[in-house]
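Operator note (shift B, R.M.): manual run for Class I SAM-dependent methyltransferase requested after the automated queue skipped it. Running by hand, logging everything below so the morning shift can see what happened. Input copied straight from the record, untouched. If output looks odd, do not overwrite the archive copy; leave it for review.
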Amino acid sequence: MVSTIHWTEARTTRSARWHSENATPPPGRVIVADDRFKADTAYRLACEGTALLWQGDYHNARQLLQAMRRRVERKSPRPGDDPLESFHLHRRARSHRARVLGRLLVLLEDGYALNLRRAPDVRQACVEAYGPPREPTAISLIELLGVLGAHQWRLKGVRVPALGARIHPHYGVFSPVRGEYVDLVAEAPLPAPAVRRTAFDLGTGTGVLAAVLARRGFERVTATDISPRALACARDNVRRLGLAARVEVAGPHLFPEGRADLIVCNPPWIPARPTSQLEHGVYDPDGGMLHGFLHGLASHLTPGGEGWLILSDLAEHLGLRTRWQLLTGIEAAGLRVVDKADTRPRHPRATDTADPLHAARGAEVTSLWRLAVVG
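Run finished. Output pasted below as returned.
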C-alpha cells in the first residue's frame, strides 16, 4: 500500500507519495514552510507532530535543520545508574531527535528533481538510493542529506590499507570506516595450506572481507547477505577490484549451500533493534545473526576448517550480553575456541568524553575468534 501525505497550498489540497527509509508513518498534519519560518516555531511544531514541507531556499532549510538540532540537543539525556540504563536513555534520545528532525520535509518531483532555490542536483543520488524515479515523493530533509552523503562516499570510496585499494559503499550499506576488523581478518593465521581453498564471507556488506580473503589466496570465496542493497554493493566492489572470477556474491541468505575451509562472519555487534536502515550494520535484534552463524557453522565447515567470528565486546560493557553467554553459545553449537586476536578501536568516538557511552566505548575491544568443530 502506497502512503501519501496531504497539505493545503493556495487554498488547494495537494498530495504526494510518502517515503521513509526508517518506515516512519506519514505525518498526519503537514503545513507549508519557507524562509520566513523561525527556528523556535519550527521546533515547537515538529515536537507537536506537525511536519513542515519546505518551499524556500535550500541552504536556509539546512540552516533551519541545524537550528532545530541544537534545540533538541539542549535537553541531553541524564546519565543512567548503570551502563545498560545509559544505553537505553541514549537510544531514546536519539529516537526523539530523529522524529523531530524528520518532520522537516522536501518534495522530490518528476525524475527526483528538487525544485528549491539554490538546491543541488540530487537526481543521480536518489536513483542510486531509491531506484528508478516514481511519482512526486515527499521525504525528510535529513534523509535526503543522508542520500547525498552516501552518493559522495560511493564516488570517492573508502581506502582500505589491507587491500591497497578503495571500497565504494552504497546507500544503506555499512561502510568499512572502522578498519580494525578488516586488519584482523587480513592478519590472522590461516588454516593449514591444505585447508584454504574455499571461503565463505557471511553478511558481506560492501564485500570488503570477501576481497581480503581472495587477496590472501583463497581460490573461491562465496559472499552472502540478506540485503539486496548489500548484494549489489558487494558485486560492484568485487568487479572494481578485478575479483569477479574468484568471488561469487549470493543471497539473500546467511549460509550458502555446501562447505568451506574458512567461514568468516562479522555480525552486527549490538543485540538491539535497529531504528534505521544503516543501523542494521550495527544492531542485531536478539543476536539473531550471531546465533545463526554459530549454530550453522559445524555443518558448513570442511574437516580441519575454521570459523572466524569478528565481534566487539561493546555489548558486554553496555550490559546487553555477557562473555559467559557468548562462550556458552559457542560450546552449545559444538565448537571450541582455537585462538583469539584482539585490537582496540581507532575511531574518534572511542576517545570522545562527551559521548554518553564513553566509558563503554573507551573499554571496547574487538576480537577475532578462531573457532573449530569439537572432536
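Quick read of the result: The radius of gyration is 23 Å. The longest strand covers residues 301-312.
Leaving this for review. - R.M.
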